[in-house]
Design goal:
Length: 522
């Protein structure tokens, strides 16, 4: 029987519950212990694949091809594990399952209700997730904030589980905001008290309160939260702002969070298992090895390229330092914007906005010998730039133009008849047979990376591109689809149809990103 840790949030959304869950999981991770992270989202989309990443944050893609909440990025990067699509519940998915069952007659004769039918379904899913992952510890993060209408039934399912299971088998961590009020010069615990009150109205008592604050919680705040929220003082922990998110497991460890939770759950805890992690984190505080431009389209507070930024950091840490990443908006691009950068990444993307600027950035890097890594759309635009400048073609992608003569990037055959949106792209892990520099980077003739796209390099143009020096150095063995391209006489000019950033973790960086950053530091 697994142990269950539930993470809820109060006061505000966006407090970093995913990071709290990932950090606690990291503390509890041991060689012989499987941790299964589950994320419950309140929205009615079946998965986040149809949401705008500039609003909702990056869509993370799992090995099995499921598009999931970006918190799974934290789980995989912290824990170095492969998660499954089923571990992301959304209200959209839960309701469509329940309605499907109703139509199939599985509840025949019954009035189908939120309680018990929806809550039973959620608990059943959690149970299935736990057994799929052969879980010793299940970490269930309930998205949103206590008091939201859309996550109430998840919290009700938590309440029922807490009642049904022995005390020693569940643990509840409530993450809240403890704001600092400048005018009075002190931290305020009232919002936390209120959110715990709201939690209690739903029949839930927290075991631990993680106070999200600018600095560590003061002694006074800890005393107050402990008194009003009925948790031990040692179970009120600080979740302060930090220079890097990778420091959070260490900050929790320093407050004994790992041993407190383990003791309560009656499981083994070996402290001191984060030595390598600590060393790597120190690197992130040292000076930057390189300055990288991430050329995308941006809005304020943008999380759309989170995994790329993290993959660059993982590589920097492996080399022994940090990396400075600057977002360069390609909607109003001038090659001068790239002055002072050691390398450029063109990330994945959709649509026509900012495309011309990205193509100009690619041309600049190709001509000036600046290391360039093109991810998915980035690789497609590298091919278009080459076709335009070197082959002198009127090249474009069918995605953003109908009136160019040469569709160097075209829609994949399998995509032509796709009408439904949501989970219909070429998604998840696919193999590539590789050669050239890509082969030596991966140290293997066969590479597997994750994908998310509808378009591909048009085979009709491959011969001409290769004749002019653009090497196709990776192909899918079944379909022949171009997976990697590269230029030989360049410090680093590699594009891939895949998203290697999704397989990079803090303690095991992705080889392509690592080599890219190495080239930038030369
Ligand atoms: N829009 C492009 C396609 O669908 C690239 C997608 C991406 O960059 N993820 O093929």
């Amino acid at each position: 029987m697994p142990k269950w840790i539930f993470v809820t949030g109060g006061v505000l959304s966006g407090l970093g519950k995913g990071l709290v869950s990932a950090s606690i999981s990291k503390l509890l991770q041991e060689e012989e212990r499987n941790i299964v992270p589950i994320k419950c989202d309140g929205y009615l989309n079946v998965d986040p694949g149809t949401m705008n990443p500039h609003e909702h944050g990056e869509v993370f893609v799992l090995e099995d091809g499921t598009e999931v909440d970006m918190d799974f990025g934290h789980y995989e990067r912290f824990l170095g594990i492969e998660c499954r699509g089923d571990w992301n519940l959304t209200s959209g998915r839960v309701f469509s399952d329940v309605i499907q069952k109703e139509r199939n007659g599985e509840y025949l004769g019954k009035t189908v209700q939120m309680v018990p039918h929806v809550t039973d379904h959620i608990k059943k899913k959690w149970g299935e997730n736990a057994s799929q992952g052969d879980a010793d510890v299940v970490m269930v993060e309930v998205g949103g904030t206590v008091g939201d209408m859309e996550n109430q039934f998840y919290l009700e399912a938590v309440r029922q589980m807490r009642n049904e299971l022995p005390d020693q088998d569940t643990y509840l961590v409530h993450t809240t905001l403890v704001p600092y009020l400048d005018a009075v010069g002190e931290q305020k615990t009232k919002p936390t008290q209120h959110s715990v009150k709201e939690l209690r109205e739903l029949g839930l008592e927290p075991d631990m309160v993680a106070g999200r604050s600018e600095d560590r919680l003061t002694e006074e705040s800890v005393e107050k939260i402990s008194l009003f929220c009925d948790v031990d003082e040692k179970e009120v922990i600080s979740d302060p702002n930090m220079d890097t998110v990778y420091r959070l497991p260490l900050v929790f460890q320093d407050q004994d969070a790992g041993s407190i939770i383990s003791e309560s759950l009656g499981i083994q805890y070996s402290s001191g298992s984060l030595e390598d992690w600590r060393e790597r984190t120190e690197n992130l505080s040292s000076g930057p090895l390189a300055k990288i431009a991430l050329c995308g389209k941006y809005t304020e507070m943008d999380d759309s390229y989170a995994s790329i930024e993290e993959a660059l950091k993982h590589s920097a840490v492996e080399i022994g330092g940090s990396v400075e990443i600057q977002q360069v908006d390609t909607e109003e691009f001038d090659p001068e914007d790239l002055e002072g950068f050691d390398g450029v990444v063109i990330p994945g993307g959709f649509g026509s906005r900012g495309v011309q600027g990205k193509i100009e950035a690619i041309r600049h890097c190709r001509r000036e010998g600046i290391p360039l890594l093109g991810i998915c759309y980035g690789m497609q635009l590298m091919s278009i730039e080459y076709a335009r400048t070197v082959l002198d073609l009127d090249a474009a992608s069918e995605e953003f133009s109908d009136d160019h003569e040469d569709s160097v990037i075209k829609e994949m055959k399998e995509q032509k008849n796709v009408e439904k949106m949501g989970g219909t792209m070429r998604l998840g892990s696919y193999k590539a047979e590789v050669s050239g520099r890509v082969e030596s980077i991966y140290g293997s003739k066969e590479v597997e990376e994750r994908h998310r796209h509808r378009y591909e390099l048009n085979p009709e143009y491959e011969e001409r591109l290769e004749a002019e020096g653009l090497r196709i150095s990776g192909r899918n063995p079944e379909s022949g689809l171009a997976e990697f391209i590269e230029l030989e006489d360049h410090r680093f000019f590699i594009g891939t149809q895949a998203h290697p950033e999704f397989t990079s973790s803090f303690e095991d960086p992705n080889p392509l990103y690592l080599e890219f950053l190495n080239s930038c530091t030369e």
